[in-house]
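SAMPLE LOG
Freezer: B-3
Tube label: C17
Construct: single chain, 326 aa
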Amino acid sequence: MREDMASLMIKEDDFRGVVENTIEPWIEKEFVKGHFTSYDGTKLAYYYVVNPDEKASVVMCHGYCEFFPKYYELAYVFYNMGYSVFFVEHRGYGFSDRAVPELDYVYVKDYSEYVEDFHEYMEQIVRKNSKTNNYVLFAHSMGGCIASLFLEKYKDYFNCAILSSPMHMMKLGQFKPWQVLLIGNICKFFGQGKKLASGQKRFDGINVWEKSSSMSKARYDYQFDKRLTVPEYTTYGGTFAWATASVKASKRCLKDAPEIDTKVLLLEAGNDRLVDNEGHRKFVDLTHNTTYKIFPESKHELFNATQDIREEYYEEIFNYLDKILE
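STRUCTURE (predicted):
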């Protein structure tokens, strides 16, 4: 393991103590927090910290049903490795505005809303507060789909992108993509787009660690406890509109992948129950500048995997960034 990284790798038994006694106070003291108004009037929550010795600014794009505290450890690691960190909660998540009254519903009309929000965030917050002109896009899962769509449209924003288990293709269970689109469009036609999609449910407060995409119980429990205590963090069930938009977006991000000029590091979880890894192989074939790394034993959340996988994961990231930013 890299010497500069070793002290930042938090062991399973130590996680709760470190995050509550060290990372949370640091977040509270050092991070700037606020809201900005996006292109259509939606107010989005943002958080950032500028490293005085900034190598680059890492701009995070989170995944489905996620929120800022899930990324506290990542933010801490990136900062202590010399990076500024910027985080925005997508519309419908955390303390950003929602288009539905139910805090645990996930709704969006189209992923272009996420993309344009992210563009506004770059223009209004990130570029105005970074110390350097170096920018790294870090995106996980659904955020990886959003990031891919962003890179296809906006070409000159990032030195590189790190896509962690990106949602280039979804695992839809018993449904085919065309079936999801058909059902979703029918439901939207009859005014049911904001209702929960088939197989989705509301947040029930039940810990499902064994079935989760995390391999670290300490990390899962910490994040789950946040859901239990903060209503804004209970996003849980996807609506028909969100499901339809997600299938369309995953198709579009592969169709337009050849448009991406930015260098990409794609990190894949070999034991992923949420993302169809065939989408990653298609993405790699369609782009000309993607470095592809597979972690065969990991579940979907690579940054919440076992100690050995996480250490390899972070080492892969920082070795890659050293080469890009040298």
